[in-house]
Amino acid sequence: MDRFDSMRLLIRVVERQSFSAAASDLGMPRSSATTAIKEFEERLGVRQDHSPCHSDTGGELYYRRCKAILPEIEDAEAALTGSEVRGLLRIDVYGPMARTFILPKLPIFL
Fold this sequence. Notes:
This protein is mainly alpha-helical and 110 residues long. The chain is built from 6 helices and no strands. It has one domain (3-109): Orthogonal Bundle (Arc Repressor Mutant, subunit A). The longest helix has 24 residues, at 58-81.
């Protein structure tokens, strides 16, 4: 398992509070998830609490950093691979302008 997959797994384990649920979400055996987290802990020399409410562990700090970093990495990869644009688009426009310019083109955009 590469480093980024390990980060994704760690985030999922912490958020789901379960190795089984995290492994199921990521389509992997529970034993593989357990082994990957154990290797992470050994590599970094920390004991992950697997609970987002305990902020006194090095693992919690690593979890928060991974949670912030991974979306940026995924966006960068998506930009290079030509993946479809995803996300929420908000448009603030005056009502008559929306009816005239935006709404007629909305089906094409969607």
